[in-house]
Design brief:
Keywords: ATP-binding, DNA damage, DNA recombination, DNA repair, DNA-binding, Helicase, Hydrolase, Isomerase, Nucleotide-binding. It comes from Antrihabitans spumae. GO terms for molecular function: DNA helicase activity; hydrolase activity. InterPro entries: ATP-dep_DNA_helicase_RecG, DEAD/DEAH_box_helicase_dom, Helicase_ATP-bd, Helicase_C-like, NA-bd_OB-fold, P-loop_NTPase, RecG/Mfd, RecG_dom3_C. This is ATP-dependent DNA helicase RecG. The chain is α/β, with parallel strands linked by helices. 37% of the residues lie in helices and 19% in strands. The chain contains 26 helices and 25 strands. Strand 5 (110-120) and strand 6 (123-127) form a beta hairpin. Helix 11 (295-308) packs parallel to helix 12 (326-339). The protein is globular and about 100 Å long.
């Protein structure tokens, strides 16, 4: 007999086990049993006196009464036209690889056909069905065994999965009402996996359940042993549903146990307490602000201030709509830390954004950010920037300011993470657009605090995160959300322009930009690619508008009367900074750019954005981009230009973006259109999603229940020493790389 931890080579033999490892990295019994079917094949719809509906899947048994090889009219080759006498009907079937199957499908043979009903000229038939030739010496239709498999498609594959040397083929598998169909590869077919699962389940001892009986009863969950058997070989749809409910809870619990452990570990670390001061830079900054903060900003600022006062590290996510004022809140928090005698590091994903943060923070602080300069305030700190493209002397100056403690706030890109960057006493790390950074990079920056302490951590994102996503991927972080726009900010109006059907509307977009520029305002034009991409002879030229071509076309054409600038990621750093500075200062009227302006860029005078080939961008990305406009006293207009089919799904997605400014609603839409498991960090960790059954969007109740259970367990048993079953479940439900990823995030 076997248990969940046993190696498969001991149970299935080395050849089968090696194939499972190569295809899916499946090594143990539990790995195999957690490779769930993605659908189930049924016996199909039996024939009745009436005709089956078009598209119905049917499985029929009958006698072959006709089998003719016919030359195809429109292409080389032959097809086999077959008539099967089944029940009281004669069923037509067509095989397009006639020469390959004619040796099996002969008149007088008895066969099982399985396929999808197709109608042609009021007569139905089966095109290229799966088939299985049955023994000739049959006395009844009850199929028990046969010597070898003759057939093709899924039916033959399933029959081969039962093949046992010396005993022939056990056809009783087709007596089952539901047959599992697994994620498979060209080298490992679904029926091969089914055979392995059957063999393992036949040898498996009853599985001990790691979930307490009370938890199972509270949430109406079946036992783990029953669930693992039912998910693979169910008799009814109800069995599948109950098995999935239990296994979804396991997945949610595994994730929440990791996050609860991380939350517990963070709570026992030491961090520098930074209580607020009434006579410090933070207080002086509040008096200098020329505008009033929103109620939401004040509430979130108070939450962060309270966290910073503790001797354990703050771990907080600050999320908010585009333009909701996260930077002001983060700056107030950093000044509180500086007032306590510590330093802050602000990590930005791009040099453009790092430079923007540096300029905006200097502008916001004024004399409070000019420590060491002639115009410095009575209380002040020094702000320095550190990026990879800076000159050697500028880097040396910034590094010296960081290591001596002269700089209270250090702003930078990945350059901050380099081993030669040291801080005098790092008290807080602020990470902007956290999804842009890998876990190793975030870890490296947090490790720059003094030995034995951990810096406070504030993670900012302008990409709204639905509650279930936050609970599942950031469950160890406290979450603060800014939903309201700052006072005086107008909502952005978005329009979708079908470029092919309405070319005059595109011309009107350029005219609108000219009107805005004439009124003293500015505009963005965003393209999806640069235009200097190398295209091999075998590749097709991208059918999109490049930023370089659009820049040349517009400055000599529709926008010839304006000052047009060009910005993209491959420009030298000094040139990028110069262009962005010129646009910020108003010397450039229209900026033709790529998505380098997606986050953080703040030019209040920009009121119009035209996004070319808008269907090439994701929903959340479009929402981010349009957030660059309407940041001053004038309304913003975003125009989404697309050559997509106006009745197709891509155009419908753009219309959904234009219909709402609610980033949370759009985030849900975006996640539904892509694999939600990627949210767990697949792109950053290099692994595929490990979500098998759990839906991060739809299973809020399950995730909440699992979070409560996991936190109660970890509170009493942080290392799961008294819960070995839960520890094993946590490791099996998440692959090793993902477990390591989550533990470090």
């Amino acid at each position: 007999m076997a248990d969940l931890g046993d190696r498969l080579d001991h149970l299935l033999g080395k050849k089968a086990a090696d194939t499972l490892v190569e295809a899916f990295d499946i090594t143990t019994v539990e790995d195999l049993l957690r490779h769930y079917p993605n659908r189930y094949a049924s016996q199909g719809q039996p024939l009745t006196e009436g005709d089956p509906p078009d598209g119905a899947h049917i499985t029929i048994v009958g006698d072959i009464v006709k089998s003719d090889l016919v030359k195809m009219r429109n292409r080389p080759g032959h097809m086999l036209k077959v008539v099967l006498a089944a029940d009281k009907q004669q069923v037509d079937a067509t095989f397009f690889n006639g020469m390959k199957v004619r040796h099996n499908i002969k008149v007088g043979r008895r066969a099982m056909f399985s396929g999808t009903v197709k109608y042609f000229r009021d007569k139905w038939g089966l095109n290229h069905p799966g088939y299985l030739i049955l023994p000739e010496d049959r006395e009844s239709d009850d199929i028990v065994a046969m010597d070898r498999v003759r057939g093709g498609g899924t039916l033959a594959g399933m029959a081969r999965s039962t093949q046992d040397p010396g005993q022939g083929v056990d056809m009783s598998i087709f007596d089952r009402p539901l047959l599992p169909v697994y994620p498979a590869t060209s080298k490992l077919e679904s029926w091969d996996i089914m055979r392995c699962v059957r063999q393992v389940l036949d040898q498996l001892d009853p599985v001990d359940d790691p979930l307490p009986q009370g938890v199972r009863g509270e949430h109406s969950l079946i036992g783990l042993d029953e669930a693992l058997r039912a998910i693979h070989f169910p008799d009814t749809q109800d069995e599948i549903d109950r098995a999935k409910d239990r296994l979804r809870f396991d997945e949610a619990t595994a994730l929440q146990l990791v996050l609860a452990q991380r939350r517990n570990e963070n709570s026992i670390r030491n961090a520098p307490p930074c209580p607020p001061r009434s006579d410090g830079i933070a207080a002086a900054f509040e008096k200098l602000l020329p505008f009033e903060l929103t109620d939401g900003q004040n509430e979130v600022a108070q939450e962060i201030s309270s966290d910073l006062s503790n001797a354990h590290p703050m771990s907080r996510l600050l999320q908010g709509e585009v333009g909701s004022g996260k930077t002001i809140v983060a700056l107030r928090a950093m000044l509180q830390v500086v007032d306590a005698g510590f330093q802050c590091a602000l990590l930005a994903p791009t040099e453009v954004l790092a430079a923007q943060h540096y300029r905006s923070l200097r502008a916001l602080l004024g004399p409070l950010g000019n420590a060491g300069e002639l115009d410095a305030g009575e209380v002040a700190t020094k702000i320095v920037a550190l990026t990879g493209s800076m000159s050697t002397s500028a880097k040396r100056t910034a590094l010296l300011a960081a290591v001596t403690g002269e700089a209270g706030i250090v702003i930078g890109t990945h350059a901050l993470i380099q081993h030669n960057v040291e801080f005098f006493d790092l008290g807080m790390v602020v990470i902007d657009e956290q999804h842009r950074f890998g876990v190793e990079q975030r870890d490296a920056l947090r490790a720059k605090a003094k030995q034995g302490t951990s810096p406070h951590l504030l993670v900012m994102t302008a990409t709204p995160i639905p509650r279930t996503i936050a609970m599942t991927t950031l469950g160890d972080l406290e979450t603060s959300t800014l939903r309201e726009l700052p006072r005086g900010r107008s909502p952005i109006v978005t329009s979708v322009v079908p470029a092919n059907a309405k070319p005059a509307w595109v011309d009107r977009a350029w005219a609108r930009i000219n009107e805005e520029v004439a009124a003293g305002r500015q505009a963005y034009i965003v393209c999806s690619r640069i235009g200097d991409e190398k295209v091999s002879a075998s590749d097709k030229e991208p059918q999109t508008h490049s930023v370089i071509d659009m820049f040349e076309e517009l400055r000599h054409g529709a926008l010839a009367g304006t000052e047009v600038g060009l910005l993209h990621g491959r420009l030298p750093a000094e040139e990028k900074d110069g262009v962005m500075r010129a646009f910020t200062d108003g010397d450039i009227d229209v900026l033709v750019c790529t998505t380098v302006v997606e986050v953080g860029v703040d030019v209040p005078n920009a009121t119009v954005m035209v996004i070319i080939d808008a269907d090439r961008f994701g929903v959340s990305q479009l929402h981010q981009l349009r957030g660059r406009i309407g940041r001053g006293g004038h309304k913003g207009l975003c125009i989404l230009v697309s050559e997509a089919n106006p009745v197709g799904p891509a155009f419908a997605r753009l219309q959904a973006v234009s219909a709402t400014n609610d980033g949370f609603e759009l985030a849900v839409l975006d996640l539904r259109q892509r694999r939600e498991g990627d949210v767990l960090g697949a792109a950053q960790s290099g692994t595929d999603t490990t979500l098998r059954l759990l839906s991060l969007l739809d299973d809020l109740e399950i995730i909440s229940a699992a979070q409560d259970f996991a936190r109660s367990v970890i509170a009493d048993d942080p290392g799961l020493a008294n819960h070995p079953g839960l520890a094993a479940m946590m490791k099996s439900a998440l692959d090793g790389e993902r477990l390591e990823y989550l533990s470090k995030t």
